[in-house]
Amino acid sequence: MITTILLVVFAVVAMLVLVGAARRHYEPVPDLLALEEHTRPVDLAAFRNLVDPGEEDYLRQRLPADVFRSIQRQRIRAALDYVRRTAYNGAILLRVGESARHDHNPEVAAAARELVTNAVRLRLNAKLATLVLYGRIVMPDARIPVSRVTEAYEHLTQDLVRLARLQTPGSVTRVSAAV
């Protein structure tokens, strides 16, 4: 009983720390066209492949156990790099959303608020995924999915494209390519 209470208290404190870290305040990015200079590229298809349980099962069935664990650790390290990139980009897009949140155009302000909400959600998911992936490096046979990060990142990029359409319609392709 005491162990359960301690775990719950630890989980609540960890969640508060993660939410606080996800909402850190930064200088706003000057405009959407400057995103290329501030973001890190993410190959979402490759990232999805790395965290796909079906792909993991395929490798597990076709490789000897020791080879699978070695390759799985490499895949997990690559996934960690993608998680870090998405978290970093989430922080940048959080700043973009915060700077556009008070726009005089209500559609732009609403799109910016949605971008901020999803950026915070992505950063929180990325922090949790980082913890899970580090645990999986130690235990590569563990089956703990981290696909929420890929889903959250995809939603975030859709929100960014929506904001770009409202603020700078001619730059949508360029803005979407930046993330």
The radius of gyration over CA amounts to 18 Å
Sheet with most strands = none
Mean pLDDT: 85
How many distinct beta strands? 0
**Distance separating the two termini:** 46 Å
The general outline is flat
The helix/strand series, from N terminus to C terminus, equals HHHHHHHH
Low-confidence stretches: none
Structural domains: how many = 1
- How many H/I helices? 8
Overall SS class: mainly alpha
Beta-sheet strand percentage? under 5%
Assembly type of the chains comes to single chain
How much helical structure, as a percent, in the residues? over 70%
For this entry, give a set of tags:
8 helices
Secondary-structure blueprint of this entry?
Blueprint lengths: L1 H21 L12 H4 L5 H8 L1 H10 L2 H36 L5 H33 L9 H20 L4 H7 L1
Helix pairs in contact: 1-6, 5-6, 5-7, 6-7, 7-8
Question: How would you describe what is shown here?
Answer:
The protein is 78% helix and 0% strand. The chain is flat and about 55 Å long. By secondary structure, the protein is an all-alpha fold. It has eight helices and no strands. The longest helix is centred in the middle third of the chain and has 36 residues. It has one domain.
Summarize this entry quickly.
This protein is mainly α and 179 residues long. The protein is built from 8 helices and no strands.
